[in-house]
Amino acid sequence: MAVRKFKPTTPGQRHKIIGTFEEITASVPEKSLVCGKRSTGGRNNTGKMTMRYIGGGHKQKFRFIDFRREKDGVPAVVKTIEYDPNRSARIALLYYADGEKRYIIAPNGLKVGATVMSGAEAAPEIGNALPLQNIPVGTVIHNIELRPGQGALLVRSAGNFAQLTSREGRYCVIKLPSGETRQILSACKATVGSVGNSDHALESSGKAGRSRWMGRRPHNRGVVMNPHDHPMGGGEGRQSGGHPRSRKGLYAKGLKTRAPKKQSNKYIIERCNK
Predict the structure, then answer these.
(1) What are phi and psi of 188, to 5 degrees?
(2) What pLDDT, on a 0 to 100 scale, did the predictor assign at position 14?
(3) Model confidence over 33-82: pLDDT tens digits?
(4) How far apart are CA 244 and CA 242, in angstroms?
(5) Which long-range contacts (CB under 8 A, 24 or more apart) does 237-246 make?
(6) Residue 238's CB: how many other CB atoms inside 10 A?
(7) CA distance linking residue 191 with residue 67, whole number of Å
(8) Does domain 3-201 have CATH number 2.40.50.140?
(9) Other beta carbons less than 10 A from residue 205's beta carbon
(10) Domain range list for the chain
(11) Over the Cα atoms of the chain, what is R_g?
(12) Which string of DSSP letters, residue by residue, matches 71-103?
């Protein structure tokens, strides 16, 4: 995938950088794998705004993605590579040999017509999902489960990948995109390869209106508010100083939010540097 820049014929075009969509092969999603998506506008069931800066945006349909990959031993052919408005990565439509259709996250290098498979007997090739115990050490992976059969929870966004670094008994040691190194059960599944659409991080909207199309309303900073609106508001002129904090007074930078006695802490070998 590549990105394209525009000549500044208008102010909105000057800084606009978007993807080329050259890998997309279908513009209409598979009807049996989508459903309507209701937008809340940041309101709860009583109509009260509980999340700020959300609202509007283009109407979207939700695509059901197969994160479990439990159809072991059944080969599938990649029919299309499609755009998904609900995620940064592209999705691939699979036609299984038994007639079933499913969407998966499209890994980097997966082409239309390729054959993929899941299960312990699958080869460690791009797009195949297999248990960590069957994946060679050093392999780049994504869509990693935390519990066997639960479905992939880790490394699912565009351009991300993890690496299987070693094995220790029943566990595999995985280096995650954040820099964290942790143990995951060898029976958990992962997909070989990195997530596609790696140039997503280079994209730039170019104008505020493009954010509105995506359902994002203008976001105003706390320091420009009044004292009763935000802890960082008020003051004569541009007042600086004080620790950055949220509207409710919680520290916004550097405050550790992970529970110190969380059970899964024992599986983390090395924390990320962030």
Answers:
(1) -70, 145
(2) 95
(3) 999 999 999 999 999 999 999 999 999 999 999 999 999 999 999 999 99
(4) 6
(5) 246/222
(6) 7
(7) 10
(8) yes
(9) 17
(10) 3-201, 220-263
(11) 22
(12) -BT--EEEEEEE--TTSSS-EEEEEETTS-EEE
Query: Over 90: is that where the pLDDT of 2 sits?
Result: no
Asked, colleague to colleague, whether 3-201 and 220-263 share their fold, the answer is: no
CB-CB neighbours of 222 under 10 Å = 15
Cα–Cα dist 65/81, whole Å: 13
Q: What is the DSSP string of the chain?
A: --EEE---SSHHHHT-EEE--TT---SS--GGGEEE----TTB-TTS-B-SSSB------EEEPB--S---BT--EEEEEEE--TTSSS-EEEEEETTS-EEEEE-BTT--TT-EE-BSTTS-S-TT-EEEGGGSPTT-EEESEESSTTS-EEES-STT--EEEEEEETTEEEEE-TTS-EEEEETTSEEEES-BS-GGGGG-B--SHHHHHHTTB-----GGGS-TTT-TT---SSS---S--B-TTS-BSSS---S-TT-GGGGGEEE----
CA distance 207 to 152: 34
- 226-236: burial string, b at 16+ Cβ within 10 Å, e else: eeeebbbbeee
Given the candidates 4.10.950.10, 3.40.50.300, 3.90.550.10, 3.30.565.10, the CATH classification of the domain at 220-263 is: 4.10.950.10
pTM: 0.90
Q: Which of 68, 90, 72, 67 is nearest to 80 (CA)?
A: 90
| Residues composing the chain | 274
